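Sample 1 of the test manifest.
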Amino acid sequence: MKRLKYLILSAVFISASVMAQDQKTPERKAGHTNNNKFKQLYEEFSTPNMFRTGSGAPGPAYYQQQADYKMDITLDDKNAKITGSEVITYTNNSPDELSYLWVQLDQNMRAKDSKTPLIEGGGVAAASQPASFVKDYMAEPFDGGFNIEAVKDTQGKDLAHMINRTMMRIELPKPLKSGEKYSFSIKWWYNINNHVEGRGRSGYEYFPEDGNRAYVIAQFYPRMAVYNDVEGWQNSQFWGRDEFALPFGDFEVNITVPADHILDGTGELVNRKEVYSKEMLKRYEKARKSFDEPVVIVTQEEAEAAEKKFSTDTKTWKLHAKNVRDFGFATSRRFIWDMMAVEIGGKTIMAVSMYPKEGNPLWEQWSTKAVASTLKSYSRMTFDYPYLKAISVHAKNQGMEYPMICWNYGRPDKDGKYSDRVKFGMISVIIHEVGHNFFPMIVNSDERQWTWMDEGLNTFTQYVAEKDFGEAYPSALSSGQTEYPSRRGPAAKIVPYMGGDQDYIAPIMTKGLNTYQFGNNAYGKPATALNILRETIMGRELFDYSYKEYARRWMFKHPTPEDFFRTMEDASAVDLDWFWRGWFYTTDYVDIGVKDVKKYYVSSEINEATKEQAKRYGMEVSDLPALVYMVEEGSEEFKESLKGGKTTENSTTLKEYIMDNFTPDERRKLKEPKYFYNVTFEKPGGLVMPIIVEYSYADGTSKTETYPAQIWRLNDKEVSKAIASDKEIVGITVDPDLETADVDTSNNSWPRETKPSEFEAFKSKSKD
Ligand SMILES: [Zn+2]
């Protein structure tokens, strides 16, 4: 009975004191807009609808368009020119009637009249590579745009069309109704660019010693734009940076190249017997059963012999692909070719590498193994790889992805030697580009609008796959390394970017073309954010389940950012609006520290703070219920009580309460803490994050406590924790394992580490 009265009284008193404090701060009455960092993202997110649900899944009315291609392509190796004719069959699965179609002409970025160079506002470059200096100031602009020779309907009648730079609008003779298909043809050619000199995601590398070229060909055909429920037509121009938005479809592609070329590309080779030699077929059959080591299909000796021939005959390679969003291929007589089988979900998939001899010895050793390892890791994190092969092609300075095929850099010196930087750069780019098969080739996000949706998710998954690769192939690691040396992923690696000059940082939710520090913005920061989400905020089990669910829901579909954000919450029951808001919509950084630590004692002596509160309510101190008071060590009251010979060790009120309310048996089980602390944490950084704290005790032990990010919900600047402890705390460290990307760790410990300034350190060093 007594206990109950006590609780009621103290509850009344405490809630009244909170109200009194409210009245003390008159500016609160002026009215605030709700900028709380934990506010739900209703204003930023589009409203869920029948196409996309509030759970982040495709809705009952979700649709996507389909574009099927039949193409005949001819490579003119002598003149570095490519010619094609294609029939596109477009299926309108939308509920809308379409009066025109938009087709992407990406090569027009390389047209003589391209506007891409005109939007560069950086002025004279203080230093540039000779090749780019020649290209920029000394040479005629390269004429690499599409030459569109014909746009016709199936009857051979010309179709009216209009070209606006990299986009072509085709007028439909009559509107294309929901559910209808329309077929039309385009004839085109263009001059292939030298991708080593002029950069770009496709083109050729020229080898002056033997006069050969190695081609990596992509964005080479007029491609349908995406039409969907969020953008209508995604016909935002291609300026050269933001990548692509493409619908899925089936491809039948015949590619005619010199007879001594080796070629591989997106899709299944349907005329293998026509284009392989008998020896190659035998080796291929062996490769299909080799799960540990690659089998060479074309040897270096054979490639070296071929590089002298320059056949004038041709061969046609026929590739068919189902449900892909794009098509790419690589061809040269200089390619070495190897393959290895990988088993995923009970199916045999081929891991493939094509490389000129310049790639060896690195490429024969690691490329195909990196492909195989990547397919396994990504399949575990998302869904079983659904295509029949994945090819890694070595192309100088390239790192670029297409369905089933990608181009990768990493070239040893002429004498075959290579540094760790070259080796791990090569393995990492292969893991990254092969990983792009999952994001965005299958989980088909809009790259033109949201670079981070494929690059960020892919770079995060790459980090997981790199760790797997290091475990699967420890012999790839250099001496002294215990794990794969990842460049992006660990929190500490993003600190220089996040703590850098705010004038040169943009939120992740910015179109790639308009951001500073593209790599950190669209790759490094989102990948790190997801890694922190997995390791620190959600934990692996909840994160991995939700991440997989997102990939599974949007496999072979077109997700938006909200679909990702919503799914991660929907599948985990972790409220993440504050995390998306801070990390993706702002440029805030993490800086959390320990500001102050005060020691307290339990006392029966009424303290000044309580007296003041009583006064504010017009109450007498004697009106108050018997309370347990906390006295701060070193305070006036504390000194007073020491002077008067009174102890501050314990509270008679508390003792009486315990005696009255607990049996002797219960009393024995009660723990009496010896130490009380008030620990104040400060947050000079804008980002809210959990406070991870390591408490070190006088007996040499330590304990780590994580206070969820929501601790900041009512005070964004500082918060305090009351700590009752059996043991004396001698040290406090915030974020001891550097897992939150805290940009300033000088305030992370108590007592403050008195580090000598850099100047002092320099002085003492020079004395030695
Ligand atoms: Zn990428």
